[in-house]
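Forwarding these from the shared drive since the link keeps breaking.
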Amino acid sequence: MLKKIHFVPIAIVFLLIIPFFSFAKADKSNLPLKTVYHVKINGKEIGTVSEKEIVEEAIQQKITQLEKQYPQLTFSAPKITYEAERTSHLVADDASVKQIHERLKIKANAVTIMFGEHSVAVKNKTDANKVIEQLKSKYVPSLQPKEQTNILDVSLSTKPVIKEAKVEPENVLSVEDAVNYVAKGTLEEQIHTVREGEVLSTIAKQYNLTTEQILLLNPDIKVDSLLQIGQKLNVTVYQPLVDVIVKEQARQIEEIPYEIEAIPNEKMYKGDIKVTQEGKNGQKEVLYQLTKKNGQIVKKEVINETIIEEPVKKIVIKGTKVLSSRGTGRFAWPTVGGYISSRMGYRWGEFHKGTDIAGSSSSPILAADNGTVTFAGWDGDYGNKVVINHRNGFKTVYAHMNSITVKRGQTVAKGSKIGTMGSTGESTGTHLHIELYNNGKLVNFLQYLR
């Protein structure tokens, strides 16, 4: 059998609760109204406070903190508007102030120097003008009294525009930093540490630079410098915000190279030269107009030249006679002076293949006839040896030389020097040992001497 539900007690409880809620609602609506302020920047609410002064204090507190951090700058807050509202709701000022601190951006009173799309910020107009002047003077060298350079014009590739601005304080630069930033396009230089096996060209390739750019960035090294492991190199790719254009006139003293006048002489052998007048360089004063971009010459024009001293030409007589490599068949005495110390034939129980001519050490040895050198060098017992093929069946051999002054393949004239007398190889004293061959057969040199 189902139990009977008792509705009467529940209804009584409900009737007792309704008056309580009605009383609470009536009590809240009777709370006193207070004025609160919605704080806005550019129409966007950043917090709600009970008093305007709370916001002003918060702003001043933040400005004071920034002034301590950046004592050289002044600051101003953005324009703040207040929207009043009468409400019975309570406002938590502490939470609102914290929120305002986070959202409120206080900027420095500064000026920007605009170079087209690029800009840099400094403290004031005075600093801005200093930046522009120092930027220009950066590429105008200090002239010495004796230097003959005249600066015609210094300009920037883009006209700078100076205007007041509100800037994040960390972006406001000193005059020195601003000049460096404009000139380089960066304040941080990229440094490469040399590793084992690296050379300039491979380092340049890593940073998309040329070797010439690396050298410009590091003036203390040369293209043939030996890099050391651990050495630091500047590899910063500079991209100036603006180019400094300098136009100047410079006077320079330059040499005028002398000319060489060659007079042919058919009596002298080809390759022989005789100087009849020495040359001397002249001098001239040249006036140039130079155009430089960021210190580098991009245009150089000659305005005027004045001759100070005319050059003196060098006059030489050049032989045109073609030297024949074919001998005459008549042989000349092969030394300067000297005497026969041993003849061809048997001596000391052995056959002596040539003729010995004794003389003083290092006296000249001469080619006995025209021909071509087929050997010039060391050859065991012969010591320093020269062999000349006379292109007519004859061949001469010169041995025990102190020095050799010809080389293989060289054409020599009869009587020309081929070396000096010595005692090299298997030799008992200073002398020339000379052998003569006719069609490969050893013959007596003295029988063919004319």
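-- next protein --
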Amino acid sequence: MMKLWGTRFSQSQSELLELFNASIDFDKTLYKQDIKGSKAHAKGLFKIGILTKEELDSITAGLERVQKEIEEGKFVFKLSHEDIHMSIETRLTELIGEVGKKLHTARSRNDQVALDFSLYCNEENAYLQNLILELITTLTNLASLHTTTLMPGMTHLQHAQPISFGFHLMAWVASLKKDYLRFKSAKERNDECPLGSAALAGSVYGNDRDFVAKELGYTRASMNAMESVSSRDFALDLSYAIATLMMHISRMAEELILWSSYEFKFVSFSDEYSTGSSIMPQKKNPDVAELLRGKSGRTFGNLMALLTVLKGLPLAYNKDMQEDKEGVFDSVATAKISLLILKASLETLSIHKENMLAMCQKGHLNATDLADFLVKEHAIAFRDAHHIVGRCVLKAESLGLDLSQIDLHELKDLLPKDVDFKVLKKTLDLNSCMERRDTLGGTASSQTLSQIEEIKQWLKQTLNS
């Protein structure tokens, strides 16, 4: 069968090239967007007098019939049709006759594929935004139950200062809020319609591009036709937003893996979201978290692959850009399942507060508070106070004790002569250490509650906007 573009050629295309050149195996994912774009384009052609009302109605009905065939599994995709655009156009012409051949007036596959892919990215972006909001809601609700649940805060994966579990969860929320805003800004930045740019230089038919843009739900038509058909910024922005989201999810997953180990035992995954071993009967593995951590890598690779495809291309469209889609499809699918299963596994997570508290009594979490006490109550320079507390830690360790457990009188030779041990004992209480960090963004329960309320108000405004 002759290609739709084949009259210029004197030889048939080789079967090897047909196999190498075709993209239908993956770009058929875009069938809904292609049909949506074709309907709007047909309305635009009617508006400028290329189509009659009867022809417009025939094309619209034919496109709807094609979509129904695809969704019912009756449509036959053929390698010889190369891509989703030619597949749909060919079938449309078979169904409605010669008028189907008018549809490609004032349009190129260059702006057609840019439109389809842009619509796909915008639609998936919006869906992922909603999934992020759902995960934020789950984490915020969990955090509200644990604003006074003590756990060790860590730096370098070493015990540092006492915090609450709720505070730690709100750190995750803060990252996810930035992710949401990153997706939102990407969609807003790329809310422009490329259709009507044609091959690279626009059209001679006087298309009303703003009309078509509004028909498709865009706020504006793109400014420059050459840039429009050459750009995949919308896909890059989505890929970057997904990669950053998955990086944050991977960090959360790493902590969940650590916390679910017997060395920590801060949390336990439900049986519903755990797996076992084929050889070790006792095993209960955190495979959800491990896969979340592992799947982040593919989204990083997909972003780098797309950047690499685009980096050396002269304007305007080049066939290299056929390689822009599969990685994005994969990243979108990965982000979707990751957000869904992380939310589900958190909703069934068991929290072991007693183990968190026990772990707070290791690693001298109140050492900084002792230094701060010496600064505030005895006017000792912080650097000198730091040295004094370092010697106190050595003393405690020589006795096999944590600073939170030691009889403070054991330290009297290292501390100022007039120290009030009753005040000092209250100061070094682990819960007091957590609650005193009451500055904006701190771990005090009042501050964590304030963060929770701020997020709840933001969620309410965002969901109602």
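The radius of gyration is 31 Å. The domain at 110-358 is CATH 1.20.200.10 (Fumarase C; Chain A, domain 2).

- D.
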